[in-house]
Design a protein that fits this description.
single chain; five-stranded mixed beta sheet; alpha+beta; globular; about 250 residues; Deoxyribonuclease I, Chain A; six-stranded mixed beta sheet
């Protein structure tokens, strides 16, 4: 089976037809979307349901909140209570696939809460602390965490050393979880998002979109790759992440 993860940028908006077409071209069995929004999400859900992905679950974002939506050709179960921090419940969705024998958590780690009067990175640290607690508790399960982590390894997943919570990112591997893309591609450099050029400075690239697997699930994963064409064509500002799982 093929699992596709993608940050569709601010809900997709007028890019909805292009988003559906781009995803359909990859023909995934399961689609995990981040930055899914309520109003434009209605059209996306209807389009995917009409084209062969009838099983749908979402974190039910309201207004312009960025949430999660999972669309599947096979039944989904979403009955696990959220362990996300209260301000970020719509950015984390746990899904079980009864017919496939594994589960996954789709996450979109917030960089900061707009207007919050707290130290920079505090909200991001709370999210990471919750994720690491779940990762430690569930390491024995056949499980994935995937989505937009907004974090990576300095000097490897970015040219510089600017990531906030890089130590939390490293802790995930220390707990025994496997960075699936690195597992297949070693020390290769690919970026999934680029900053906007400012003041004549060039854009900087970052690998923000990840999939981490538990040791029991890793043997079932046969491939992991990015598709950058959609980002280059401005269908979204993020590249697609695609996993093949037997």
């Amino acid at each position: 089976m093929k699992l596709l993860s993608w940050n569709i940028q601010h809900g997709g908006g007028t890019r909805d037809v292009r988003i559906v077409s781009a995803i359909a071209d990859h023909n995934p069995d399961i689609i995990a979307l981040t930055e899914f929004r309520a109003k434009p999400g209605m059209a996306l859900r209807q389009a995917f349901a009409a084209n062969g992905w009838p099983h749908i679950a979402s974190s039910s974002p309201a207004g312009i909140d960025n949430g999660i939506c999972v669309l599947s050709r096979t039944p989904l179960r979403c009955d696990r209570p959220s362990t996300a921090p209260p301000e970020n419940t719509v950015r984390w969705l746990d899904v079980d696939l009864p017919e496939q024998g594994f589960g996954f958590g789709v996450i979109h780690i917030l960089t900061a809460i707009p207007g919050a009067k707290e130290p920079e990175g505090a909200a991001k640290m709370r999210f990471w602390d919750a994720l690491l607690a779940a990762a430690e508790a569930r390491i024995a399960e056949p499980l994935l965490f995937l989505g937009d982590f907004n974090t990576g390894t300095p000097l490897i997943d970015e040219a510089g050393s600017t990531f906030v919570c890089a130590e939390h990112f490293a802790r995930l591997s220390a707990l025994g979880w496997i960075d699936v893309w690195r597992h297949f591609h070693g020390d290769a450099t690919q970026y999934t998002w680029y900053s906007l050029p400012r003041g004549g400075a060039p854009a900087n690239g970052f690998r923000l979109d990840h999939a981490f697997a538990t040791p029991s699930l890793l043997p079932r994963i046969t491939a992991c790759r990015y598709s950058h064409a959609e980002r280059e064509q401005k269908v979204s500002d993020h590249s697609l992440l695609i996993l093949e799982i037997k």
